[in-house]
Amino acid sequence: MRYVSVYILAVASLMALAAHDPLSAEIEPGAAVKADACASDTSKLGVSRIVEIDTTGGVDVGGDKAGAKQLLNDGEVVLTFDDGPLKSVTVPILKALADQC
């Protein structure tokens, strides 16, 4: 019986830790990105531009397929977030991106 109690306590503790997410208070979902505010701060990576892609009907961006939209300039990268949102993964990524503008 003691082992069951310890197991239940351990599971409850892990669930409480997973539910507590101190980073979520620092990120405001849907907030506007201010690319110009970061342009002059050399301590941050910054954002040169923001491209929103309408994914209605599926979109083919980049790659070698005929008809694929080529929207990157030299030195640019695209970040995509296809899996999630998973709070334990998404929030730290959003915080890291926010820290770098």
Summary tags:
mainly alpha, single chain, about 100 residues
Question: What does this entry look like structurally?
Answer:
With 101 residues, this protein is mainly α. It has one domain. The chain is built from 3 helices and no strands. Mean pLDDT is 66; it is low at 20-25.
Number of domains: 1
Mean pLDDT: 66
Counting H and I runs of at least 4 residues, what is the number of helices? 3
Shape: flat
Over the alpha carbons, how many angstroms does the gyration radius reach?
20 Å
Based on secondary structure, the structural category is: mainly alpha
- Distance between the amino and carboxyl termini: 52 Å
Report the helical percentage.
25-40%
Strand element count: 0
State the low-pLDDT regions, or none.
20-25
**Percent of residues in beta strands:** under 5%
- Major pleated sheet: none
N to C succession of SSEs: HHH
Write the layout of secondary structure elements.
Layout: H1 2-19, H2 35-39, H3 87-99
In short:
With 101 residues, the protein is mostly helical. The chain is built from three helices and no strands.
